[in-house]
Design brief:
Blueprint (H helix, E strand, L loop, with lengths): L9 E7 L3 H11 L3 E2 L8 E2 L4 E7 H10 L4 E5 H7 L4 E6 L9 E8 L14 E4 L2 H10 L5 E4 L13 E6 L3 H5 L2 E10 L1 E5 L1 H4 L2 H20 L2 E9 L3 H7 L7 E4 L5 E9 H13 L3 E7 L6
Parallel strand pairs: 1-4, 1-5, 8-9, 8-10
Antiparallel strand pairs: 2-3, 5-12, 6-12, 7-10, 7-11, 13-15, 13-16, 14-15
Helix pairs in contact: 1-7, 2-3
Length: 295
């Protein structure tokens, strides 16, 4: 049976698992309220034109390609693993812990005699990313048996010859005393769409609007708004302190001798910047979080 999505709904796939919480937070920052019951795989979205369903990131691209869902979020790694023919609408650099890509690495136990990739010829490697890993060894002309791992892959580095596993910070590899031989792939989250859905004008607009807002939410995650009152006589000195690439908004105040200055800066910069601005004459300094920054 061929599944057809409802013509009056955009069917959106939300990744279940490690990306779930960070994805829901991202959508909330983008302006979409998505509620998920602990007993249901069908979230509720506060947009009558969108219906949502949850799939694991590993299978998302297959369902998008088949038209079971119109669009969804998954990793570039799983698109490659599944060989899915989908449209990548946007790259959204976020993961379960930080705003950074994840890496799929070939690793062995620290005490392993294997020193380079060629030493694995004739060996056995465990991974979830089977197809990508098989291609990796085939391209190198190595005869390596690649077995699917159902999880706890790090443990298998001491049972087999090597593993290919995903890492975001590298802390798990260090904790399990593993040594990295090579990086097979660097992957980020992608917002993908079905080709037929993108040929439907209202769905295409809805998908592109969503991509714009999600991208804006990511841009805002490590930034803050900074607002202050500045004596006109100190304005040049104050603006000289602000990051050179940022052009502040300057507004007149009722008192002609003062202006309001507003700028968006990195959260890390803000903690050093505020004391400098105070010493230079700024008053009433306010910092506030941002939901979206649209370039």
């Amino acid at each position: 049976m061929v599944h057809k999505t409802a013509e009056d709904k955009l069917v959106l796939g939300i990744p279940k698992g490690s990306l779930q919480d960070s994805t829901l937070d991202l959508f909330a920052r983008a302006g979409y309220n998505i509620q998920i019951s602990s007993r249901s795989y069908v979230p509720v979205v506060d947009d009558e034109q969108i219906s949502a369903i949850m799939f694991r990131a590993q299978e998302m691209s297959r369902y998008v390609e088949d038209g079971v869902i119109d669009a969804g979020l998954t990793g570039h790694d799983w698109i490659q693993e599944n060989g899915s023919d989908v449209i990548e609408v946007a790259e959204l650099v976020y993961a379960k812990q930080n705003l950074r890509p994840v890496r799929w690495v070939l690793a062995v136990a620290e005490e392993s005699p294997v020193r380079e990739v060629a030493d694995l010829d004739g060996g056995i490697v465990a991974t979830e990313l089977v197809n990508v890993t098989r291609k990796y060894f085939a391209d190198k002309g190595l005869n390596v048996k690649v077995e699917f791992s159902w999880g706890a892959t790090e443990v298998k580095a001491r049972l087999l010859d090597a593993i290919v596993d995903v890492t975001e910070t590298g802390s798990s590899l260090k904790a399990n005393k593993l040594r990295v031989l090579d990086t097979l792939m660097t992957s980020t989250t992608r917002f993908i769409a079905n080709k037929n859905a993108m040929n439907t004008p209202w769905k295409r607009q809805k998908i592109e609007n969503m991509a714009l807002l999600l991208g804006g939410a990511i841009s805002a995650r490590e930034k803050v708004g900074l607002k202050m009152n500045v004596p006109r006589k100190d304005l040049q000195a104050i603006t000289a302190i602000l990051p050179a690439e940022k052009s502040p908004t300057i507004s007149a105040l009722a008192d002609a001798d003062w202006v309001a200055v507003e700028v968006i800066v990195s959260e890390r910069v803000e903690r050093d910047l505020v004391p400098q601005l105070k010493r230079a004459g700024a008053t009433g300094i306010i910092t506030y979080p941002l939901n979206k920054v649209i370039p």
